[in-house]
Each structure stands twice: as C-alpha cells, then as structure tokens.
Predict the 3D structure of the following.
Amino acid sequence: MTVFDVAEHILRARGRMTAMKLQKLVYYSQAWSLVWLDRPLYRSRIEAWANGPVCPELFDAHRGVFVVNPGMFPGDPDALDDGAARAVDTVLDAFGKKPPEWLSALTHSEAPWKDARKGLLPSARGHRPITKSAMKEFYGGL
C-alpha cells in the first residue's frame, strides 16, 4: 500500500475535502494502524510542519490545490486489505466530519507533533519527521 492508496480510500469514502484535512486523516490513519494492526499503512515519511503533520510525498502531489477530489492521486483504494480498510474507516468515523482546523489544532496538542517541533519557530515549515515509533507510543497509550 502507498499513501496514495490510503488517500484515495479516504476520498472515495468521504468525497472532496481540503488538502489539509486529507493530510490529517492520512496521518491519523497511519498512527492508529500502528496501534491497532501493529504495522504501518504506508512507508512515506510524515513531517511536523507548522500546520501539523504532513506527508511531503502527498503534498507534492496536491501542491497549490486547496480542495482535493477522488481520483486525483495515483492510488488504488482497493489496494487496502481488510484490516487496513477497517482501520482507515474507523478513523473516518471518528474524525471524518471534523473541520480541518479542528484536526490541525488536535495534532498541535499531541506529543508526536509537539516533540518533533521542539526548538522551531511557530511559523517555520520544518522537515523533522514524526516517527512511527513516536506515533505508536503516544496513540497506543491513549
């Protein structure tokens, strides 16, 4: 599976949304997969940017686009196995109706993003990774 497979699964399930919201849902899908399935959904790196967690590979595919639509990315939503699809769908049940600003604020309150941002100015883009181990440790403890 790739980050694009997960993104397309999310977009097929929820329809068009802002790119920022998609980034946060992709992040939470990865985090909770690490906890529930004990494995990542995709290998792509997640970084702690000023507006919250961002997958640069996904960002490069939607750069300059505010709203993303199903079919926009080179991913296959059917590439997710049953466990991965259930994990993403559970994240969507919890967070899919939340506005992007709410999701961004939530990520800003959580240790994986905050720890990766230590020492950076609030407006600094930053390229520090949010590690899979940090995600698994934090969300597994909730």
